[in-house]
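Render this sequence as a predicted structure.
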Amino acid sequence: MARWWDALLGRTEPVKPDLDALFALPSAAVTLQAATGLEPNGVGSVCFRPAEGGAFSALERDVVELLAAGGGPPVEEVKDAYGYTWLVVRRDPAALGDLVTDLHAVNSSLEAAGFGPSLLCSLVTFTSPQGRLALVYLYKRGTFYPFAPLPGQRRDNPLELQVRGALDGELRIEPDLGRWFPLWGAPGL
């Protein structure tokens, strides 16, 4: 009965995040390069709203140390103007699979410790002589969208739509264009 009322009132259950969807990025990158010439530049990041307290600070420190362990890449922590934290990972551009694994580890660690609601998005950046692009994973929606910034806080909408068309079927693309939020000043872009 409750489902019927929810349907009648237009309420839906939120989509559960599927962090394993990140592992589709390496094959999607091959399609993206063939369709647009954009190539991974080796930079990815996870954005989250920091929680108060020692437990969250200790977890954040542990995640940074985990990724840097064994000669892994150093992780850069960046605070943006809105109070969000970005953990930025840099890898060889040819090692997109390793970069995705690192981003997955950050997301999974935060989620497993109960901080999943603090996760906002993850992004992997791409470049070409014509421009740059981020494939953004929206944690709370379980979807991806392309973000192609231009100088002067403008967007390359034709490129974003071209990428959507090229990757539809490979990644779960966010259908609501209103949720393709601009990430001005995101690390790596």
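Summary. The beta strands are 39-48, 75-79, 85-90, 119-128, 131-138, 143-147, 149-150, 154-155. The helical segments are 2-8, 25-36, 54-68, 96-115, 157-167.
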